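Worked example

This section walks through a single chain of length 296. The input is the sequence exactly as stored; nothing has been trimmed or padded.
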Amino acid sequence: MRRRIVGILFILALAVWLVWIIFRDSETPLPQVNVVIDGDPVIVASWQREQDRLVVVTIPASFATLAVHGLGTYPIRSLWQLGTIEGMPGLILAESLEELLGLPIPWYIGEIPVGRFENVFSFQTLVAIISGRVKPNMPIVKFIGLTWGRMVARSDRTIEIPLGASVTTEEPQPDGTNLPLVSTRAVDESLGDTFEEASVRGEKLTVAVYNTTTTPGLAEGAARIIDRIGGNVVRIGNEEVPVERCQIRANSEHLGTTTSRMLASIFTCDRVLNNGDSYADVIVAVGSGYESRFVP
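Given that input, the structure is written out below as tokens.
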């Protein structure tokens, strides 16, 4: 009997530790763990601790999107291989889907022999990771924690969002075929406010996003990600003085907020004490570091 009680206590302690592993992250205060899983369909899974739920977005691998680093338009199924060719296996896929979904995705898992989400976070995949047959960029302890989270996730706390043909437009190709290109506007309509963080929305801080480079569209792309997590972007523009590393500028009160810390983590920014401007409480100034994601 005593041995049984000890065993139960051990299992409970292990469960607590695994849940802690899921949400502890010394690198980012973002209270959601987002990971893209290469396969068909491609899966983006998000564990959201503020809402205590699991969100699963699926995208047919035949759908096409614009790859980062100026590589052109490709079917999503080609992005992992493209990253391998470019010496960045997994990173091209993750960053391209970040821009497609307007969602920060720091983690990726590729070359998985099983396609169903229920089979991805499993003992079988854990063995494949240890043997080197599956390639994640996350620490193995975090993978174990996510596997536990998938196992204990309640069905009524799981949201599935399949992105189908309605989010694509047919783009004619030189060979006479059509490529189903995913529309970011249609994606925004499908995802809605699913990925908003209550802590960010609750702070009600206004945000201005400025592009300090000569590459157009950077501020708009960053603003879309900020809106996705619940930020309130009120101004998008350009700055003449370039910066290399992204900056989060705000006064002392706003610089320490959850919003500022999340944005600094997502865009790899320095937090700079500043009186802000008349347009917003928090300024996000993206520079050449962020620009490097989009240029060859």
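What to look for: The chain has a mean pLDDT of 86.
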